[in-house]
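Form 12-C: Joint structure prediction
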Amino acid sequence: MNERVETPGNGNVFSENCPTRQVLDRLADKWSMLIMNRLRTEPVRFNQLRRDIEGISQKVLSQTLKKLERDGLIHRQVFASVPITVEYSLTKLGQTLSQTIQALSHWAEHNIETVLAAQKQYDNLAKQREARLG
Amino acid sequence: MNERVETPGNGNVFSENCPTRQVLDRLADKWSMLIMNRLRTEPVRFNQLRRDIEGISQKVLSQTLKKLERDGLIHRQVFASVPITVEYSLTKLGQTLSQTIQALSHWAEHNIETVLAAQKQYDNLAKQREARLG
DNA sequence: CGGGATCCTCAGGGATACTG
DNA sequence: CAGTATCCCTGAGGATCCCG
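Section 2 - Result
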């Protein structure tokens, strides 16, 4: 465990190589969290994922899965059936992460309306200001 | 374009307009969560943020802050000092979100070593396989 | 100090075709 | 079914200059 140096009362600084940055750099893309979230309850096969994660392309799905597997977050199991079958599931490590991702998902469900309302209000105010300036 | 009809029922499907997707689309970039996290403990000024969030450009910081403000997650307060001072802080809504982001940050700190180890192992296995075929 | 406006790049990611 | 291989393009984001 390497203790991070945090300036006492002053909030932490986000140096390029702090753990949060490293993890966020891998998770903060369009799809990783969605995939993790989809795998949370059960193993899922490739094309099932492709169908469930609406809008993802086959290439990006493949890439992202490989990345997540490399990070030790998901497990890839091949069944020598005909035709071949591949199941993706969360590892123990991935399960712990999926907890916090699920929290984010819950936050989203509970607060999306508030966010959308805030956007509308912001846009209205912006429009008014615009009109005033001509 | 391709209007997918969502199959009702089994499991949760991630349609393009589900709340999780909408929120993730706004948060899942390189900087939003880091900024939210930096603002968690105290209001911070523009250039202070720029210095603390290592590597972010002025333009992107500005863009991201505006986006977060539009979403009702952060508040922008201007002080008519000379020269001008601007403080960014979390709104109530932003505070609730920052909780779960902090959870992600904690996960990162606790598990980054495991992730890095998994990567090494994955790369080694890949290299071995490559050698066997080469 | 806190940005806005421009220009430019480079990689994320879409579309399509092919394979074991 | 579960991917790989290419081609291509858009847009996130960096660099730079400017301004109240």
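Section 3 - Comments
Residues 29-31, 56-57, 59-60, 63, 83-84 of chain A lie near DNA strand C (CB under 10 Å from a C1'). Chain A touches chain B through 56 residues (CB under 8 Å).
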